[in-house]
Structures are given as structure tokens and as C-alpha cells.
Specification:
Helix content: 10-25%
Strand content: over 45%
Radius of gyration: 29 Å
Distance between the termini: 75 Å
Number of helices: 3
Number of strands: 34
């Protein structure tokens, strides 16, 4: 016969074992839930990466479509968006798993062909390119049949040992064509008024305190445009993220202003001495980059002119990582001009559909209809003095906007991931 104490002890042991078994089952259940949740999160991230890869091979503009990536996976529905962002493209993907939302966004462009080594494309106007001083061309050059020759300008003769360090090829009498999609995107930005694709519009006078504004915007939010029919002067503050700043007259950016990944459109844009940031600037008339300005990668300066005269000028000591482009409307016989002054540098591409005054350094590809050189004593056509055209020094990982299709890979590539 068992004593009462022994019975209580047996009951306690049984209860304890039952409790431990319940805890074990509960922990196993939650571990299984966490494992399923982690598996779901991993799948969601995998779906985002697959959607980004889909956008990289798709040339179409896609406005927020939902797609089921895998027929056998009902949870692979992903929202994908590919829209022009100035010269580049803005890619966005989004998917949902349970209560979690996963997102990715990036600025994309096109890498150069692996065989592309073009330092210079000069339209064939049956003239030689004359070189003086410490000028150098490193990479392939497409020129007229008359090629290159040494020159003596302002008391300086050509000081190098080779006129060209690369292959000499034959150019055509016209420049390589700019992609239709790039032209349409730029042309759309040169019209006055509120941009048709803006989802949210703030009037500058309401969004700013005099010349100060501070807005940081995620790439996953709706596209924001800050608009004014009047001039915009920004001396201090910050704009960060895919934000379009637009004026029907002019925009002036001060050196203390902070900008990252923004797009500016106006007839006239001036970026004052000492500014540093990343932006794209699109004008229909004049674009002035002041002294010692640093435009970080990826940036772009673009003139699309329907006027008789237009100007894009990079002053002494300024640097651009990206594209510098001047396009004129052939229908109105406009004349466009790019000035790259002494000490100014471009890492990427320079494309001048008309005149290029080049006294600085371009590390990448330069294409122009003709060079002109203005000195204190004279004006020279198709002459270079102390100018650098060097494709070999462009970083191998550089990805441009792909505005010239024949220079670039057909698939897009990520330039920068965005928050």
C-alpha cells in the first residue's frame, strides 16, 4: 500500500513531465513557425532579386505592375516599376509576406561593351584634328580620313611622343544617334509647368522657408515634384531621394545646399562655386557649373535646346561623375556649345551635338560635331590645346546611362541602390 506522500510525489513527477513535454511541443511549434517565417522571408527576398533581374533585361517602361513570377508559387506576386529618371532609370520592386513588406529600389543604366575603348568620336567634316601642348588621346579614336596632326598654338607645340595611343578608325559625318527613349525623357522635362508624371506636387513657396527647404524622400514613396513658375534660389537645406525640382524660369543652387539623387529642370540652372552632391540638371537654355563643384556619381548635365543659342559650361576645377550632354533641335537650326574649362574633369561621357571647347580632362568617351578653341589671340576650329581624352583611366566598373545604344550592353546594370 502506497503512502500518501509517495502518491503526491508521483503526481508531481507526472505533472512536471507533462509540463516539460508541453513546453517542448510549444517550443517545437514556435521553432517550426519561425522556420516557416524565415523561409518565407528568404523566398520574398529571392522574389525581389528575381524581379530586379527581370527589370534589368526589360527595355519597357513599367508603371507599377503586379506579376506572379513563378506559376507554381502563388506567393511570388511582386509589384515592379521601371520609369525614366532623367537620363537613367528608376527600378522599384515590392512584395508582401504575411505582415511584412519587402522592397528594393535602384538607379540603373548600361555598362559599356567590353570591347568599347572609344576615347573620341569626331564627326567627319573633311578636316584633321590638330593637337598642341600637353594634349593626349588614350584609347580608340574615330576621325575623318585626314586624321591627326601636330599644331603650334600660343607658343606651344605638341609635346607628346604619340598623337594617339589606340586605334584610329573612320567616323561618319554625323554623330551616333541618341536613344529615342532618352530624347523623349529629356524633352519631356524641358516643357514648362507641372510634370505630367508627378504623383505628388508641392509648390516651392509652400514647401520652403524663403531659400531653405529640407525634404528626404524614399524611392518607394510616390514621385514628388517641387514646382514654381518663378525663379528658385536654394542657399541652404537638403533634398534627398528621387525628387524633381522644377522652375519655369531658373534654379540657382548654393554651395551650402545638400542634394542627393535629385533631378532639376529649368530653362536656366546655375550651380554655385564649391557645391558638392549628386544630381541631374536638365535645361533648355543655359547650364553653368561653377568653380570647384563636385558632382558625385551618378550625375548628369543636359542641355536640350530649341533656341538659337545654348550653353553648358564647366568652370575651372569642377568635376562630374556621369554624363555631360548638349543636344540641339535640328528643326530650328539651333547652335549649342559645351565649354569644359581648364582643370575641369568628366568621368563618363561628353556628347556635344555641335561645338565643344575642351580645355580640361575627360576620362571616358567624348563625341562632338567639332572642336573649337578660343585663345587670347585667335579662334581655331578642330584644335586641342592641353586637353585630355582618356578612356583607359575610366574605372572598369563604370555604368553610364546608356544614351548611345551602340556603345553599351543591351541589359541594364545597377548603378546605385536606394533607400
Amino acid at each position: 500500500m502506497l503512502k500518501a506522500g509517495s502518491l503526491l510525489y508521483a503526481i508531481f513527477i507526472s505533472f512536471l513531465l507533462s509540463a516539460l513535454a508541453s513546453v517542448y511541443l510549444l517550443v517545437s511549434h514556435y521553432n517550426q513557425l519561425y522556420a516557416l517565417r524565415d523561409e518565407g522571408r528568404v523566398k520574398a527576398i529571392h522574389h525581389l532579386n528575381s524581379a530586379i533581374n527581370l527589370l534589368l533585361v526589360n527595355e519597357e517602361e513599367i508603371e507599377g505592375e503586379y506579376r506572379q513570377l513563378y506559376r507554381e508559387d502563388d506567393f511570388s506576386r511582386v509589384k515592379i516599376t521601371a520609369t525614366p529618371w532623367g537620363l537613367y532609370q528608376l527600378l522599384k520592386t515590392e512584395t508582401v509576406f504575411q505582415q511584412d513588406t519587402f522592397q528594393k529600389a535602384a538607379i540603373a543604366g548600361n555598362a559599356y561593351h567590353k570591347a568599347h575603348q572609344l576615347a573620341l568620336y569626331l564627326s567627319d567634316r573633311n578636316q584633321p584634328l590638330s593637337i598642341a601642348g600637353e594634349s593626349r588621346i588614350i584609347g580608340d579614336a574615330m576621325l575623318s580620313e585626314r586624321g591627326l596632326k601636330r599644331a603650334f598654338i600660343e607658343g606651344k607645340s605638341f609635346s607628346g611622343s604619340e598623337l594617339l595611343k589606340g586605334q584610329r578608325l573612320r567616323s561618319q559625318n554625323s554623330l551616333p544617334a541618341i536613344r529615342k527613349e532618352s530624347i523623349e525623357s529629356i524633352e519631356d522635362l524641358t516643357w514648362n509647368g507641372i510634370h505630367s508624371k508627378a504623383d505628388t506636387v508641392y509648390y516651392f513657396e509652400q514647401a520652403s522657408d524663403q531659400a531653405y527647404i529640407n525634404i528626404q524622400r524614399s524611392a518607394h514613396q510616390s514621385q514628388l515634384q517641387i514646382y514654381s513658375p518663378n525663379p528658385i534660389y536654394l542657399n541652404a537645406g537638403r533634398l534627398q531621394g528621387p525628387i524633381l525640382l522644377r522652375s519655369d524660369q531658373e534654379v540657382v543652387i548654393g554651395s551650402e545646399f545638400l542634394a542627393e539623387d535629385i533631378l532639376i529642370a529649368a530653362p536656366y540652372i546655375q550651380i554655385e562655386d564649391g557645391f558638392q552632391g549628386s544630381l541631374q540638371a536638365v535645361v533648355s537654355d543655359t547650364l553653368i557649373l561653377g568653380k570647384n563643384v563636385q558632382l558625385d556619381y551618378p550625375s548628369a548635365l543636359v542641355v536640350y535646346s530649341e533656341n538659337n543659342q545654348s550653353l553648358l559650361e564647366m568652370q575651372e576645377g569642377s568635376t562630374v561623375w556621369g554624363e555631360v550632354i548638349s543636344i540641339y533641335d535640328e528643326r530650328v537650326n539651333a547652335i549649342s556649345k559645351i565649354n569644359i574649362l581648364e582643370g575641369a574633369k568628366v568621368y563618363g561621357s561628353v556628347y556635344a551635338s555641335n561645338n565643344l571647347n575642351h580645355r580640361g580632362e575627360v576620362y571616358g568617351t567624348t563625341a562632338c560635331k567639332k572642336f573649337y578653341l578660343k585663345t587670347t589671340s585667335s579662334i581655331y576650329e578642330n584644335h586641342l590645346l592641353d586637353a585630355v581624352l582618356d578612356f583607359q583611366s575610366l574605372p572598369k566598373a563604370y555604368v553610364g546611362s546608356g544614351f548611345i545604344s551602340e556603345w553599351c550592353e543591351s541589359n541594364k546594370a545597377i548603378i546605385k541602390w536606394l533607400d
